[in-house]
Amino acid sequence: MHLLTGFEYSKNEYLDIIKKAIDMKNNNAKYQDTLKGKTVILMFEKPSLRTRTTFEIAAYRLGAQSVYLDLQSGDLGKRESISDYACNLSRWSHALVGRVFSQKTLEELSLKGSVPVLNALSDIYHPAQAIADYMTIYEHLNKIEGVKIAYLGDGNNVTNSLLVAASILGAHVTCFCPQGNGPDTEVFLKAQEIAKDSGSHLNVTSDISLLHDFDVVYTDTWVSMGDNTPLDDVLNKFKQYQLNKDNLNKSGAKLVMHCLPAHRGYEITDEVIDGSKSVVFDEAENRLYTHMALLHKYMQ
Ligand code: CP
Ligand code: NVA
To answer: Which of 112, 157, 191, 286 could, after both became Cys, cross-link 126 (CB 3.0–4.6 A)?
Structure first.
């Protein structure tokens, strides 16, 4: 009914969405108007380039309407309760897409509303990003199961969702993070439990000397939205985890990934993000098709 964490899906459900997204990429016209007359409401408490535009365009390409609610000035839950937002919006829409400060907000929307709620990034998860990431890996490496991913930098919402999806899909993820900046412990432990069944290996280490024998290297910002710490203040802590030419060569990876926005010269260098192994804009492009697949799944 909802996509709140990414733990909701089985392996087949992940693969179905990814395969549907690939079909939508290749046969756009086939899906035109399949959501005619439907409405999705985008509730964003934080800025967005990719997620907002691709959800809006995804809705348009399926014949649906999108309504963007700018909640960046902190309105959600202030003028009226989150519960009343959910009850109202459910009466005239077919899905709610939320980018929120707190995962609890999505939970409340999903409990109080009567339409599907899709997570477009919270403090803990970014599951829609992870689906596009694994679609991109599948397109480039022709497999997901057994793919070895090194995540470098801050263990955040994007890291958590990479781990969640890996645990279900059977990919292997090692997070290279400074001590105290690893992924969310609860999410990691839950993913590790699931990984026992899928054959996925999940690790967290601060030892960058273990960065070798990977297929993919992935990074994200060292400071996420909602935290106003200047990047220069954390440079010393994170610099050995920078995705630069040296670390890329050591990793042996064939693909460089980043959810974007990139902070060039901090978590990733120009020569790596603009280099021949970078698939960051394929990843960004795939947000559109995975969002089409998600809206199709939840709003039909
Ligand atoms: N990757 C991602 O979610 O980008 P936006 O913040 O621009 O939506
Ligand atoms: N970790 C980042 C992801 C942005 C898409 C953030 O939350 O700001």
So the answer is: 157
Find, among 168, 139, 136, the residue nearest to 5 by Cα: 168
Catalytic residue among 50, 52, 129, 215: 129
At residue 217, φ and ψ (nearest 5 deg) are: -115, 135
SS3 (DSSP) at 63: coil
Name the token pair of 283.
């990843």
CA distances from 139 to 25, 184, 212, 265, 279 (A): 12, 29, 23, 28, 10
Q: Within its chain, how far is the Cα of 60 from the centroid?
A: 21
- Of 126, 172, 258, 291, which one is the catalytic site residue? 126
Please enumerate in sequence order all residues whose Cβ is within 8 A of that of 89, keeping only pairs 6 or more positions apart, or say none: 41, 43, 96, 113, 115
Exposure letters 223-254 (e unless 16+ CB within 10 A, then b): bbbeeeeeeeebeeebeebbbbeebbebbebe
Pocket of ligand 1 (CB under 6 A): 48-51, 121, 129, 259-261
**DSSP secondary structure string, 142-159?**
S--TT-EEEEES---HHH
Spatial distance between the Cα atoms of 31 and 29, rounded to a whole number of angstroms = 5
Question: Is the distance from CB of 48 to CB of 224 less than 8 angstroms?
Answer: no
Give tens-digit pLDDT for 19-73.
999 999 999 999 999 999 999 999 999 999 999 999 999 999 999 999 999 999 9
Condensed to tens digits (0 to 9), the pLDDT of residues 239-293 reads 999 999 999 999 999 999 999 999 999 999 999 999 999 999 999 999 999 999 9
